[in-house]
Specification:
The protein has two helices and two strands.
Length: 80
């Protein structure tokens, strides 16, 4: 499904709809092409790090024993 959506976006971009400008014809873009690439890269890295941290936190649970102030981290099986 993801590949079909990506293929649709590539076809859309390469077609005549890919030439539509957002704004006036004489306006200069607010960000350069390099800035757009950097923003896309940082958004992808941020999303990946958030997903990884969420996945790692699901595999561990914190237990606070009432007799001790120590925190014990217990690893759960990967299937849960």
């Amino acid at each position: 499904m993801c590949r079909l959506f990506f293929l649709f976006l590539v076809i859309l971009c390469l077609g005549k709809l890919g030439d539509i400008r957002l704004g006036n014809e004489d306006e200069k873009p607010e960000f350069s092409f390099f800035s757009w690439l950097c923003m896309l890269f940082s958004a992808g890295m941020g999303n990946s790090s958030n997903r990884l941290s969420t996945r790692l936190s699901r595999n561990c649970e914190m237990e606070f024993p009432s007799t001790s102030r120590a925190v014990t981290i217990v690893r759960r099986p990967a299937g849960n």
